[in-house]
Amino acid sequence: MGTSKAKISSNVERDPGVKTARRVLALEADALRALADSLGPSFVAALDALVTVAGRVIVSGMGKSGHVARKIAATFASTGTPALFVHPAEASHGDLGMVTEKDAVLALSNSGETAELADLVAYAKRFAIPLIAMTSDPASALARAASVALICPVAEEACPMGLAPTTSTTVMLALGDALAVSLLERKGFSTDDFRVLHPGGKLGRRLLRVTDIMHSGARMPLLPPATPMMDTIVEMTGKSLGCVGIVDSDGRLSGIITDGDIRRHITDANVLGRTAGEIMNRNVKTVRVDALASEALQIMNAKSITALFVVEDGRPVGILHIHDCLRAGVA
Fold this sequence. Notes:
By secondary structure, this protein is α/β, with parallel strands linked by helices. The chain folds into two domains: 2-189, Rossmann fold (3-Layer(aba) Sandwich); 210-327, Roll (CBS-domain). The protein is built from 16 helices and eleven strands. It has helices at residues 2-14, 16-38, 41-51, 64-78, 88-91, 118-126, 141-145, 167-187, 191-197, 201-206, 210-213, 229-239, 259-264, 276-279, 293-303, 322-327, and strands at residues 57-61, 83-85, 104-108, 131-135, 148-151, 222-223, 243-247, 253-258, 286-288, 307-312, 315-321. A five-stranded parallel beta sheet has the order 2-1-3-4-5, with helices on both faces. A three-stranded mixed beta sheet has the order 6-7-8. It is elongated, with a radius of gyration of 30 Å. The mean pLDDT is 89.
């Protein structure tokens, strides 16, 4: 077994594809380090311009730069900076109408001489729309026209012919991420804001809070301690959550009766003649009103219980059943 693994490892090390891949990754890693070292006043100026935009950030680029621009626009939008990709060629045929004087334009071009961007650049200049360039040539037409020029360090393309955009697009993509995350932090974009923009998929489920899926108001099974056990059982059965919360005269949660508690008292001949306060368990497991649903599920699993009251200042504001978590896809 060990000899076989060593042979496979040796074959991998000699494979020309692996050597090429490592060369590509090393080139791109070096370019990203150079990009990080190059950040300076122009990056801060770009953030200053973007954070004050009342409209949207219009991101544009042609070819591979256009694909990167689409991703940057999507990243902006998902992190609290409204953004829209506009194809530069389509902009010349009517899509300039998507750009308003409240917007800012982020234009990507490695050479800075992309002809298709000319009309969009001219439009931004005509209406005094902030124009941020992302290019590797500070002397290019795009850099000269821009309000702020973000100059990407010149790096060797990973393509053996030095032609196919590889390293240059990686640098642009990373610079877009750096802008988006820096703007996110400046704006104080929170996990709650993020959840609003990502309601679907695993990410949205991870950010659900107990208040999003709990039962509240009249749907909560709550009774005072003087309630007869017959009425308590009726309430528990009617709400179908497997428990009843017992609240004192101040509305604070003082105990709980579960269906398990009732089963444990089934041999008590006088159980129906007793009150909820006499039967209740005072060791109530609760969860904070601002807790994530995943945190509540973890508590239920750890304590081997199926329901948690959601409390604020000791008062129940909701109840969460383990089935609510499962229906919401929280795991």
